[in-house]
Design brief:
The protein has a single domain (21-221), classed as Glutaredoxin (3-Layer(aba) Sandwich), CATH 3.40.30. 32% of the residues lie in helices and 19% in strands. It has helices at residues 3-16, 65-69, 86-102, 123-126, 138-159, 209-221, and strands at residues 42-43, 51-53, 56-58, 74-79, 110-116, 166-170, 184-192, 195-203. It is α/β, with parallel strands linked by helices and 232 residues long. Helix 3 (86-102) runs parallel beside helix 6. The strands form two sheets. A six-stranded mixed beta sheet has the order 1-6-5-4-7-8, with helices on one face. A two-stranded antiparallel ribbon has the order 2-3. It contains six helices and eight strands, in the order αβββαβαβααβββα. The longest helix is centred in the middle third of the chain and has 22 residues, at 138-159.
Length: 232
Amino acid sequence: MSRRLLLSALALALFALPSGAGDMFKSGPQPGESIAGSFSPLNISGKFGKKVEGGEVSPGRHHCLVCDYELKPVVLVFAREPKDDKLLMDLLKLIDQAVEADKTVTKSLNSFVVFLSPFAIDSVFEASVPDDKKLKDPSKLIELAIERKGLYLRLDQRAAQLKNVIVTCYPGDGPTGYKINPKAEITVITYVNFKVQANFTFEENQITQQSLGEIMKAVHALTGKKAEEKPK
């Protein structure tokens, strides 16, 4: 085939691709970049999560886990609530197992998941919103309170299935600077010394069983341990 015909064929092939097919879908800081810094999600579980003592319920606190983990290896997951969260929970359970297993190896691996939701707005986040953008309609405030209560309940149920992965939540598209793609349903970031090692991003319903294996290879690369195959 002549050079001219080859170039023509390539041009036709590219023209036939659907719009955006050649673009990489990105969300969050990429490998080699530094993570965007501290932020304080509401901790649902863990040391700063909800506690029940003497029949009294103490709500979770806003706390920066990035600050707590400092230079240690971390698996950070940003997720919007999928309609079917089986694969997401399978992934979190695998990460949970990896953190547990690392307790007898490097004792340094940590992980937390940040559920992004418009219902995660509470008085702490509301205080940072400009007055002209604050929600003031009483009926809307009641609706938000009901939705927020439902969100916390669902996150409590997810947290009950995890021992080592801390469950948190944050409003909107996440903390400033992290650049979480609004179309990303799940963004997984592994980092150490605040430097991103791997990034896995999935649009709605795009994560697969095979994806879990690829993510876990990156997770175990942080500690050098072989990945487990199935969530318990």
